[in-house]
Amino acid sequence: MHLLPDAAQPQLLAEVLLREREPADAALVALYPAIRRRHTSRYPFADKEIPEAVRAALSEAARLEGARLDFPGAWHAQSLLELVGDAEGRDTLDPRNAEDLNRWSRIGTAEADTATDGVPDYAFGPRKWYGGAPVRDFAGRRPVADRATMTFENTPHLALLSTAGDGTEDWLRAGQALERVLLLATAHDLATSLTSHALEWPDLRWLARDPRSATGCVQMVLRLGYGPQGPATPRRPVREVLDVE
Ligand SMILES: Cc1cc2nc3c(=O)[nH]c(=O)nc-3n(C[C@H](O)[C@H](O)[C@H](O)COP(=O)(O)O)c2cc1C
User: Is the pLDDT of residue 220 over 90?
Assistant: First the structure.
C-alpha cells in the first residue's frame, strides 16, 4: 500500500495492490470478525478496570501502524476531561457548532432511516444525567423521541492516540492506527467511543498532549470500557470512496 501516491492528486489518499500469493498478516486476519461488530457506543460503561495486558496490546496495535496510544494517569485524565468541558462550553457559544451538528446529525425516522452518512438519532445513546464520561450529545438542544436519560461512569477509561508529526501522512497513519486499535478493542469485548472535542481548538489540543511523549501530536481521544456496543450506522456507497481497477 502507498499512502499519497501522487502529489498532483492530494485527494488520492492511498493506492492498494492486492496480491493473492502474499502471506496474510495473521494479526490483521484475526481482526476481521470485529469489523462487523465494532460500532461507536455512546452508552454508559461499567466501572471495571481494563487489564494491563489488553492495554499493552492496544498500544502495540497503534505502534504497528506508526502511531502511539497512551493511557493517561489520574491527573492527566482529569485534565483531559476539563479540556473537553472547556470545548463544550466554547461550542455552546459558537453558532458554527450548531450548524455543524445540524449538518452531521439525522433526527426523526424519515431522516435517520434513509441517511447515507452522518450520525442518525438511534446512535446518539441516552442523554447524560450525570457522570464524567466525555460523550458528545449530537442532539444538542433538539428533542429526540423516546430518548432515555442515564447516569454515565464517573472515571472513564481514556486513551490518547498521537503521531510524531502533523502532516497529511500522519493523519492517514493516525486513521489506520485508530481503526486497528478499535478493532482489537472490540475483539477483546470492549466498547468504544471517540471524542475529538478538545482537539478541535488548537490551544486545547496543545494542552491535551501526553507529558511523557511531549513531542506527540494528539489525533484522537478514545473512551473504552465494558458496555453495550452501539448500533450500525449508514455508510456512503463504496464506489464514492474507492476506485477498483
Ligand atoms: C475524526 C473523527 C472524530 C470523531 N469525533 C467524535 C466525537 O467527538 N464524538 C463522538 O461521539 N463521535 C466521534 N466520532 C465518531 C463518529 O461519529 C462515528 O465513527 C461515526 O458516526 C460512525 O459510526 P461508527 O463508529 O459506529 O461506525 C469521530 C470520528 C472521527 C473519524
Answer: yes
